[in-house]
TrEMBL record:
<keyword id="KW-0274">FAD</keyword>
<keyword id="KW-0492">Microsome</keyword>
<keyword id="KW-0597">Phosphoprotein</keyword>
<dbReference type="GO" id="GO:0004499">
    <property type="term" value="F:N,N-dimethylaniline monooxygenase activity"/>
</dbReference>
<dbReference type="InterPro" id="IPR020946">
    <property type="entry name" value="Flavin_mOase-like"/>
</dbReference>
<dbReference type="GO" id="GO:0016174">
    <property type="term" value="F:NAD(P)H oxidase H2O2-forming activity"/>
</dbReference>
<comment type="function">
    <text>Broad spectrum monooxygenase that catalyzes the oxygenation of a wide variety of nitrogen- and sulfur-containing compounds including xenobiotics. Catalyzes the S-oxygenation of hypotaurine to produce taurine, an organic osmolyte involved in cell volume regulation as well as a variety of cytoprotective and developmental processes.</text>
</comment>
<comment type="similarity">
    <text>Belongs to the FMO family.</text>
</comment>
<dbReference type="InterPro" id="IPR036188">
    <property type="entry name" value="FAD/NAD-bd_sf"/>
</dbReference>
<keyword id="KW-0503">Monooxygenase</keyword>
<keyword id="KW-0443">Lipid metabolism</keyword>
<keyword id="KW-0488">Methylation</keyword>
<dbReference type="InterPro" id="IPR000960">
    <property type="entry name" value="Flavin_mOase"/>
</dbReference>
<dbReference type="GO" id="GO:0034899">
    <property type="term" value="F:trimethylamine monooxygenase activity"/>
</dbReference>
<keyword id="KW-0472">Membrane</keyword>
<dbReference type="GO" id="GO:0050660">
    <property type="term" value="F:flavin adenine dinucleotide binding"/>
</dbReference>
<keyword id="KW-0812">Transmembrane</keyword>
């Protein structure tokens, strides 16, 4: 019997989930509330009447990971069309190309908002949705929630917020720098939103303050002319002892960016917090355009802020870049939220086995709620393949008790290895996580499996692939080389082209894509 599957959201996670579901022969459909695909990555202007915005993307958003690592594993981004780091417009264009190439659009119902999902006895999901033609209810065998975790702004309960007479916004609604020209601005936080927004506003603002409690490592996009990820590798992440890798990464960072400004220099090590990527932020501090403050917020006052170090800031605008709440309003809350974490007490702690599926509900998969030093799209794709593998009975989930134990161990791991914060409740180490999820599909690119290929296929090519997978920039084709769902032709061609640094798709890639389009693309 064909499984009937509903996917909520047509962003990065929803599109790749749809593609995997169709490839497995499921009857799958996406319900997307907006009138377009792209999810968060589709920039939207504020509503002219209410001022509300859908996406958290601002005009200046540039992908934090580079083109060669960020594509889905079987659909490379052509360097002839895409820049080394893509802006949001280019990335949405890529998502459109992906959806067209894999014939996904006819399986997407735009303008359809999922309102409520209830699990029925026996495990099916009853879904209530609303669209222009009215509300509808349907029943599905499995449900994928792919609406991301950067939608609901997290605004801490700042004391005195109502007393502030200036403008207060969350980064979620920030779009362009123009409106802040000549203003005195305070930005709270030092995550990607804070660092991007501060860097955009600083040249035009009268004063630009950045307030951070813990400081942070700010990693440049380019190091010695290459994307910073070119200095990462599967070898460094999975073969070298982690102490050596961390030492080398810290040395490289220090060498390249110099000593961090004291107000920014964190006590924690380089990968103990989610990384923030931006090349010009430190420069803007060094030339006096941005003033960092190492303090918390004591309270808001009529004319600005009182910081916990006793400093008073007189400002016109305060932008809280304080992150987002993990929230799925259409799901039962106990299907994803941890009741109370023993290790990190945060509303963002989740009760999901492998950060995907809850032990207490069946056939529910949440794709794409991850934080990682690297790109989300290939990881969301792996989560989708893993979930589809479960539904297709390629392997079984462990027992409920085992899943709960594993969630507890993951929480312990977070508490031990990351700064305790609402930001670090879904943080993963990408290679280890990817391999764990791909292992039951026999698709993890292990050294031994790739090494064996030297004796069973063209040895020179197999050696080049092994070398590229372990020593080169971590491109996502490595996840399509083996096992269930493998597509060797496109995977090998794109891995080798990316390792070479060629400036356009290779002939082999074009040929592999042509064959996929003509024969193998999903219906
Ligand atoms: N270009 C891109 O690709 C972009 C990607 N993103 C992504 O979006 C996600 C969200 O990023 P972002 O919006 O920056 O949020 P983050 O959760 O990453 O950062 C929140 C920041 O706010 C601070 N903060 C939270 N609460 C308080 C408080 N009460 N007082 C003072 N400071 C506080 C945190 O400090 P502390 O550490 O002390 O808790 C942290 O510095 C991330 O995954 C990020 O990578 C965002 C923007 C651009």
């Amino acid at each position: 019997m064909t499984l009937k599957v509903l996917i909520v959201g047509a962003g990065v996670s929803g599109l790749t989930t749809l593609k995997e579901c169709l490839a497995a022969g499921f009857e799958a459909i996406i319900f997307e509330a907006q009138g377009h695909i792209g999810g968060q990555w589709q920039y939207t202007d504020p509503d002219p009447v209410t001022g509300e915005v859908h996406s958290s993307i601002y005009q200046g958003t540039i992908f934090n990971s580079c083109r060669d690592t960020s594509s889905f594993s079987d659909f490379p981004m052509d360097p002839a069309s895409y820049s080394v780091y893509t802006g949001h417009k280019q990335f949405v264009q890529y998502l459109h190309e992906y959806a067209t190439f894999f014939n996904l659009m006819s399986h997407i119902k735009l303008g359809t908002r999922v309102m409520k999902c209830v699990q029925l006895e026996g495990g099916k999901w009853e879904i209530t949705s609303s669209a222009e033609e009215g509300a509808k209810t349907g029943t599905y065998d499995a449900l994928f929630a792919c609406t991301g975790h950067n939608t609901t702004p997290f605004i801490p309960q700042f004391q005195g917020l109502a007393d502030f007479k200036g403008q207060f916004i969350h980064s979620h609604v920030y779009r362009t720098p123009g409106a802040f020209e000549g203003k005195k601005v305070a930005v709270i936080g030092v995550g990607s939103s804070a660092v991007d927004i501060a860097s955009e506003l600083a040249p035009q603002a009268k004063a630009l303050h950045v307030i951070t409690r813990k400081g942070g490592w700010i990693i440049p996009r380019f190091v010695f002319g290459k994307p910073v990820e070119a200095f990462d590798s599967r070898f460094a992440a999975t073969v070298l002892p982690s102490a050596i890798t961390k030492w080398a990464q810290t040395k490289l960072c220090n060498l390249f960016i110099g000593d961090l400004p004291p107000k920014l220099k964190p006590k924690h090590g380089i990968l103990k917090a989610n990384p923030t990527v931006r090349s010009d932020f430190l420069e803007k501090i060094h030339v006096g355009l941005i003033t960092p403050h190492r303090a918390g917020i004591e309270k808001f006052a009529e004319k600005g802020l009182l910081l916990t170090n006793g400093m008073e800031l007189d400002v016109d605008v305060i932008i809280a870049c304080t992150g987002y709440l993990i929230e799925f309003p259409y799901l039962p809350e106990d299907s994803y939220r941890a009741k109370k974490s023993l290790f990190i007490d945060s509303p963002n702690s989740v009760n999901l086995y492998e950060l995907v599926t809850p032990p207490n509900y069946q056939n529910l998969f949440i794709i794409g709620i991850l934080e990682l030093p690297g790109p989300l799209p290939p990881m969301a794709e792996i989560q989708a393949r893993w979930s589809v593998g479960i539904l297709a009975k390629k392997f079984n989930l462990p027992t409920r008790e085992q899943m709960s134990k594993s969630i507890e161990q993951f929480q312990q791991h977070l508490a031990k290895n990351y700064v305790h914060s609402d930001r670090h409740t879904v943080t993963i180490e990408p290679f280890q996580y990817a391999d764990r999820l791909l292992r039951p599909l026999h698709a993890n690119p292990s050294f031994s499996a790739l090494f064996r290929k030297i004796f069973t296929s063209n040895p020179f090519r197999a050696l080049s692939v092994l070398n590229a997978v372990y020593m080169s920039i971590p491109s996502s084709g490595q996840f399509r080389l083996l096992g269930e769902g493998a597509d060797q032709e496109i995977a090998v061609a794109s891995i080798l082209r990316i390792a070479k640094g060629a400036r356009e798709l290779s002939k082999e890639e074009k040929e592999a894509l042509r064959k996929m389009r003509e024969g193998a693309s999903v219906p």
